[in-house]
Specification:
The chain has 7 helices and 13 strands. With 245 residues, the chain is α+β, with helices and mostly antiparallel strands. The protein folds into 2 domains: 52 residues, RNA-binding S4 domain (Structural Genomics Hypothetical 15.5 Kd Protein In mrcA-pckA Intergenic Region, Chain A); 147 residues, Pseudouridine synthase (2-Layer Sandwich). Strands 5, 6, 7, 8, 9, 10, 11, 12 and 13 form a 9-stranded mixed beta sheet that branches. The radius of gyration is 22 Å and the shape is elongated.
């Protein structure tokens, strides 16, 4: 791999910044000054130091974000702040983006990553990855309407897949779905004559919202959480293969 590509993909410096740092003698590879930004390096074994800071190469990055109100699930928007503004610029240089969407006023768990293949697999309609949301309603939700929702309701020409609902009070609880249509939960509740007043995602596949993570804050996924995502994808793949056999 080229030295400037390694530093760029690591979110450390742009290729132009790398060239400038090399000319100034501020980049070393295995203790030797790097004179050229296109110098070949082994990202797994070579010790690269940029401006006195050792570089740890990671091709992919995974962040758990506790989304606050009013932020759009995108990398840019002409009118509103976006979730990627909540993380440091080095992650933006690595090409990080939100895996899936939450409505502007929906709170809670979001996964940010630059792993396009993993994101695609998690979001594919056939993957059936479970997402759970804590909700509050304008009115009480009677048992018969819970039954309708769990079986699937029509939301503008589309019948939702079966879901699970656990009520905590007469008008609040947790709903778990395996799809993600536009404003789906709000439209589901409207289909049974009710209205969402608060919505927060608390889990996405094997990931759960970290209770120690303040609203608007983020942290990197642990190795265990990354492995759990990989197992989730593997389980979905094996499930599809068994259906076809």
């Amino acid at each position: 791999m080229r030295l400037d590509k390694l530093l760029s993909e690591s979110g450390i410096a742009s290729r132009r910044e790398t060239a400038r740092a090399c000319r100034a003698g501020q980049v070393t590879v295995n203790g030797v000054p790097a004179n050229r930004p296109d110098q070949s390096v082994d990202e797994l074994t070579d010790a690269v130091v940029y401006c006195g800071v050792p570089v740890l190469y990671r091709k992919y990055i995974y962040l758990l974000l506790n989304k606050p109100d009013g932020y759009v699930s995108a990398t840019e928007d002409g009118n509103d702040p976006v979730v990627t503004e909540l993380v440091p610029p080095e992650y933006l240089r690595m090409g990080i983006f939100p895996c899936g969407r939450l409505d502007k006023h929906t709170l809670g768990l979001m996964l940010l990553t630059n792993d396009g293949a993993l994101s695609h697999r998690l979001l594919a309609p056939k993957s059936h990855v479970t997402k759970s949301y804590r909700f509050a309603l304008q009115d009480a939700l009677p048992k018969e309407k819970i039954g309708l929702l769990e079986q699937g309701v029509n939301i503008g020409g589309y019948t939702t897949k079966p879901c699970r609902i656990r009520m905590d009070t007469a008008s609040s609880g947790v709903i778990s779905i395996t799809e993600g249509k536009y404003h789906q939960i709000k439209r589901m509740m409207e289909a049974v004559g009710n209205k969402i007043t608060a919505l927060e995602r608390i889990s996405f596949g094997p990931l759960s919202l970290d209770p120690g993570l303040p609203r608007g804050s983020w942290r990197e996924l642990t190795a265990q959480e990354i492995n759990a995502l990989s197992r989730e994808i593997q389980a979905q793949t094996e499930g599809k293969e068994s259906e076809l056999s």
